[in-house]
Amino acid sequence: GMIRHGIAEIVKMAVVENSELFELLEKVGPKFLVKTKFGTDISSIENIDSINLKEFDADCERVVALAMESYVRAEFGNLWETHQCRPHAYGHKWSPGYELPAGMLHGHAVATCVN
Fold this sequence. Notes:
With 115 residues, this protein is mostly helical. Helices cover 57% and strands 0% of the residues. It contains 6 helices and no strands. It has helices at 2-16, 19-28, 30-35, 53-75, 95-98, 106-113. The longest helix is centred in the middle third of the chain and has 23 residues, at 53-75. It is globular.
């Protein structure tokens, strides 16, 4: 659902803009972030005793913070969207043309243009 689309956007920023975010995603694992809804629902965690929940929670918070910081840094000089020369435009070449007509959610459509 929607969390997967958010993860897709976060992964995109990690790949094109923020190596620290990329490394943190490798540590935490996007699948794990989706399963736990960024650490807000730990009921799906098997072997919960083997996980440092305090560290996992801090990592989840850091993922969101780094992703947001990357977007703000990329957009700061382009608040009125006067140009598309920005890292998070990656994956937006053709998807805007078919996203809505195809009934796709944004993250899915963008992911189809990332190669």
